[in-house]
Amino acid sequence: MIHEGKARIEVYSDVFYNPRMRFCRDADMEIFRSMKSKSYLDALAATGVRGIRATLEADFANVEFNDFSRKACENIERNLRLNGVEALIHNRDAAALMRERSYHHVDIDPFGSPSEFLDSAAKSAFRYLSITATDTSALCGSSPLSGLRKYGAFAEKTEYYHETGVRMLIGKIVREVTKYDKCPEVLISWAKEHYYRVHLKLRRTSRGAGKIYEKTGFILHCRKCGWRESVNIFETPEMFCQCGERSRMYGPLWLGELHNPEFVSRLDRDGETGKLFERIESEIHSVTHYEIHEICRRLRMSPPPLSDVIEALKERGYPASRTRFSGTSFKTDADIREIEQIISEVHRQH
Question: Looking at the predicted structure, is the pLDDT value of residue 46 above 90?
């Protein structure tokens, strides 16, 4: 018997349950309380723990569960009885089910890539879409060919690889939902350990679905000096860096905001999930971030305190903040050469 949140569940043999994803489900419950879904599909439910917790902790009504495995469906049925919850259980291929039925909120949490389900989920979801990806190597640039095959985008591993991964995932979701004249807004997203998680709000508007592409495009990156720049999909990129090196081009991916500040401000700040929400809320918007150890490695110096570097950037008039992706990374709109100069000055002061 496993106790998670307000739920009690049993896990049958051969039915997948990942205890490492408990933090994600804890965060989801706080997020779900602010989403107020009218109908919710846990499309790849396994034990049913997320949907059961959503019923018990976020007051979700009209929750439905689906899993292709008959044994998983029996496990879900058992766990529903354990928690006094009544709900409809489907033993279907998730993509086929979502093409036939519409839901206010669709949640895709696969073991691996969500790519094969995104088209059907985009069609089915009316208001909210929640997506998990655990194939981070395909998204972050560790396996560029996998990224091209699954997500139709190219990336290489950089110091901001987790942010690239989240932006590639959102970019793929954008291309899927806009096919159905739906315009997405990112409510919140994060990267942790082996997975990426994204929650989006959808509006049905063909005009908005077209306009959203102003927030998609490419990152230009110089692997020699660390310079980078983003260009939207309608712009012509400048392929050479200021240092003369030819830039690499990553994408297409999402260039827009990774969270909605008003939405995040409503989330509870208690516990470990609260610390994540605080980091997200305090983060400024920029398309990439910088890793202080990587910059100092190029400068051949030990890294000064990150808080001092951020304060020095602000004193020079540049917006700057820590990031949700790493405790040693920061965001700013300063150019790499200005960043290096400021870091060198802070280093000398120490």
Answer: yes
For residue 137 the two structure tokens come to 């190597």
- Asked if residues 23 and 192 have their Cβ atoms less than 8 Å apart, the reply is yes
> DSSP string of 116-183?
HHHHHHHHHEEEEEEEEE--HHHHHTSSHHHHHHHHS-B----TTHHHHHHHHHHHHHHHHHGGGTEE
Write down the architecture of domain 291-349 according to CATH. Answer: 2-Layer Sandwich (3.30)
| Pairwise CA distance, residues 57 & 271, whole Å | 16
Two tokens, residue 292: 């202080």
Start-to-end CA span in the chain (Å): 54
Whether the CB-CB separation of 163 and 142 falls below 8 Å is answered with no
pLDDT tens-digit readout, 199-219: 999 999 999 999 999 999 999
Instruction: Report whether pLDDT(59) > 90.
Output: yes
Topology of the domain comprising 2-282: Rossmann fold (3.40.50)
b (16+ CB within 10 A) / e for 53-62? bbbbbbebee
- Per-position DSSP letters for 203-216, written without gaps between them: EE-HHHHHHGGGGE
pLDDT for the residue 350: 84
The answer for 143, left when phi > 0, alpha when psi is -120 to 50, beta otherwise, is beta
Segment 172-184 shows an average pLDDT of: 98
For the beta sheet containing 228-232, the strands, ordered from the edge strand earlier in sequence to the opposite edge, are: 228-232, 216-221, 248-254
**Helices within the chain (DSSP H only):** 22-35, 49-57, 70-82, 94-100, 115-124, 136-140, 144-151, 161-177, 206-211, 261-265, 271-282, 292-299, 306-315, 336-349
| Stated pTM of the model | 0.97
Domain ranges for the chain: 2-282, 291-349
**What's the pLDDT at 193?**
86
Which are the contacts of 24, defined by CB distance < 8 A and separation ≥ 6?
A: 132, 192, 195, 197
Of 212, 146, 191, the C-alpha closest to 283 is: 191
Rounded average pLDDT over 272-298: 97
User: What is the number of residues in the chain?
Assistant: 350
Q: pLDDT tens across 224-265, in order?
A: 999 999 999 999 998 999 899 999 999 999 999 999 999 999
Residue 21: DSSP 8-state: G
